[in-house]
UniProtKB/TrEMBL annotation:
Pfam families in the record: GerE, Response_reg
Lineage: superkingdom: Bacteria
GO biological process: phosphorelay signal transduction system; regulation of DNA-templated transcription
InterPro entries per UniProt: CheY-like_superfamily (IPR011006), EvgA-like (IPR051015), NreC/VraR/RcsB-like_REC (IPR058245), Sig_transdc_resp-reg_C-effctor (IPR016032), Sig_transdc_resp-reg_receiver (IPR001789), Tscrpt_reg_LuxR_C (IPR000792)
Matches recorded under SUPFAM superfamilies: C-terminal effector domain of the bipartite response regulators, CheY-like
Domain HTH luxR-type per the UniProt entry, residue ranges: 142-207
Descriptive protein name: Response regulator transcription factor
Gene3D superfamilies: 3.40.50.2300
Organism: Solimonas marina
Record key words, sorted: DNA-binding, Phosphoprotein
PANTHER family: HTH-TYPE TRANSCRIPTIONAL REGULATOR YHJB-RELATED (PTHR45566:SF1)
Length: 222
């Protein structure tokens, strides 16, 4: 069995451990690379040139909705990404597909089914639950615009969305303030935005829809 290098990006350590144990038969003994935030995911991607697959949770520190997926598609377009999320809203699944994921696994999926999905994507396929949501033209346009940004410009955009000034962004990312200004100008041009506020609104559109409420049934009386 060939060793496979898989990155497991999730901010819950127990979930990462559980997934790592489940993946042993798939990875050929290669321990998964773990990431708990967008920053550590970026470090993992830069440190490992031989990544075969990324298992990605959308909700991690530093990430806004699908921003981590957009980052991965820009930084390592050759590496397939499977989104693993507790938010299995039909539109969330469809949007993950439109933003470049190769698969989507709800966290409620049984382990054997999850491994089946991982193997299928590693073999070059795609894996998505049955989709009830239609494709969105707005999402397609947004994905096309964001695809023009470099990884560094994506980082600057996320800081802009947090309301940071150029000086603060420079400090946060270790850049010269003039370099940040150049990035901001390029970002606004590529996104066809006239202001930082407009760009922040586009980032807000990366947030997934909330998961549907589950039927819990009547509660027993005390």
């Amino acid at each position: 069995m060939l060793a496979m290098k898989i990155v497991v990006a999730d901010d819950h350590p127990l979930f990462r451990v559980a997934v790592a144990q489940a993946l042993r038969d798939v990875t050929g003994g290669e321990p998964p690379v773990e990431a708990s935030s967008l920053r550590t995911l970026e470090e993992a991607v830069q440190a490992h040139a031989d990544i075969d697959l990324v298992l990605l949770d959308l909700h991690m520190p530093g990430a806004r909705g699908f921003s981590s997926l957009v980052f991965l598609r820009g930084e390592r377009p050759e590496v397939p990404v499977i989104v693993i999320s507790s938010n299995d809203h039909p539109r969330t699944i469809r949007r993950a597909q439109q933003f470049g994921a190769s698969g989507f696994i709800p966290k409620s999926t049984p382990v054997e089914r999850m491994l089946e999905a991982v193997r299928h994507v590693l073999e070059g396929g795609v894996w998505f639950p049955a989709l009830a949501a239609e494709k969105s033209e707005d999402d397609a346009k947004l994905a096309a615009k964001l695809a023009q940004l470099t990884p560094q410009q994506m980082r600057v955009l996320m800081c802009m969305a947090d309301g940071l000034l150029n000086k603060q962004i420079a400090y946060e990312l270790g850049l010269a303030e003039n370099t940040v200004k150049v990035h901001v100008t390029a970002i606004l041009r590529k996104l066809e935005c006239h202001s930082r506020t407009q760009a922040a609104v586009l980032v807000k559109a990366l947030e997934p829809d909330p998961p549907p409420e589950r039927e819990t049934g009547p509660q027993p009386e005390e």
